[in-house]
Backbone:
């Protein structure tokens, strides 16, 4: 490849990259301005409580990132670090206290939890109005019904990136690879609510390549390194790679990759999120957005005596 061709290839790759890191920075800036306005209007600083059980290194990094970004946008942060020996009853007691604490607008329990703790019981114990992760069954039901409620942060980040890149999504064919409760199912519902025609693919789906190639929008969230290649992608499609996987080469060097083979996909896609720097930063920015929304709703409810979660 000559120098001109190499330069053109770099320019073309840059033009298709969907920069989640830059978008998240803008979103945090908007949230910071709105938090300042909210505090001036109500005298209440939105508060986010994050609970970590155990000492998982990755979870510790995620929690530090959330605490730092909360501080940057003007949200009060309350960190609860519990030992791995913490019982389910002790964790539920803490959640009860946080539910009743007026200084806390959002509660996030970092997952995964130790095996001896029932995740479903913990999620269901959180006040739905403070469930900034959007995992409580009431919020899941509201999303399915198209009603206002807390939306999971990663799927919300995906939707915001798509709307920023493509505008109105009505009528577009969307394919979601993966059916987890955290990403696959909620992003499918969000896209359906945005008037897309949605197909969900999973481990039992047949002819996955052909199904993916029909997609104007392809969202991949399965946790399998680089499983999606150029053959899966319709020319010009917008591809969101939610996966984050740590792999090791023959020399023992480790690097992060997504569920999509970036270099292969770049030859076909019209828009593509990188890993890292794509969906990940959007998740934390949307957590800040959700915390502000929870504070607004709780403030509105305390004044009016009722109302829907927003």
Residues:
């Amino acid at each position: 490849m000559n120098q001109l061709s190499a330069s053109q290839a770099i320019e073309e790759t840059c033009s298709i990259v969907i920069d989640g890191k830059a978008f998240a920075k803008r979103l945090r800036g908007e949230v910071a301005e709105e938090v300042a306005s909210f505090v001036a209007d109500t005298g209440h600083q939105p508060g986010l409580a994050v609970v970590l059980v155990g000492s998982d290194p990755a979870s510790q990094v995620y929690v530090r990132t959330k605490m730092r970004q909360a501080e940057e946008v003007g949200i009060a942060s309350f960190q609860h670090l519990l030992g791995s020996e913490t019982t389910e009853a002790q964790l539920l007691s803490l959640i009860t206290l946080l539910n009743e604490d007026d200084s806390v607008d959002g509660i996030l329990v970092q997952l995964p939890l130790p095996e001896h703790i029932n995740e479903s019981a913990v999620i269901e114990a959180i006040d739905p109005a403070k469930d900034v992760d959007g995992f409580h069954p009431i919020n899941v039901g509201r999303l399915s019904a198209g009603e206002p409620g807390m939306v999971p942060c990663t799927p919300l980040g995906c939707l915001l990136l798509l709307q920023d890149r493509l505008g109105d999504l009505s009528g577009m064919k969307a394919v979601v690879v993966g059916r987890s409760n955290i990403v696959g199912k909620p992003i499918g519902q969000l896209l359906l609510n945005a008037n897309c025609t949605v197909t969900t693919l999973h481990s039992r789906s047949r002819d996955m390549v052909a199904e993916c190639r029909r997609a104007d929008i392809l969202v991949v969230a399965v946790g399998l390194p680089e499983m999606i290649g150029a053959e899966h992608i319709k020319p010009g499609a917008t591809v969101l790679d939610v996966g984050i996987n740590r792999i090791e080469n023959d020399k023992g060097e480790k690097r992060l990759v997504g569920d999509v083979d970036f270099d292969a996909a770049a030859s076909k896609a019209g828009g593509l999120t990188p890993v890292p720097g794509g969906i990940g930063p959007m998740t934390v920015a949307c957590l800040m957005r959700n915390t502000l929304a929870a504070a607004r709703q709780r403030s509105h409810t305390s004044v009016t005596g009722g109302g829907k979660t927003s």
About this structure: Residues 177 and 201 are 5 Å apart (CA to CA). The first strand starts at residue 47 and ends at 53. The mean pLDDT is 92.
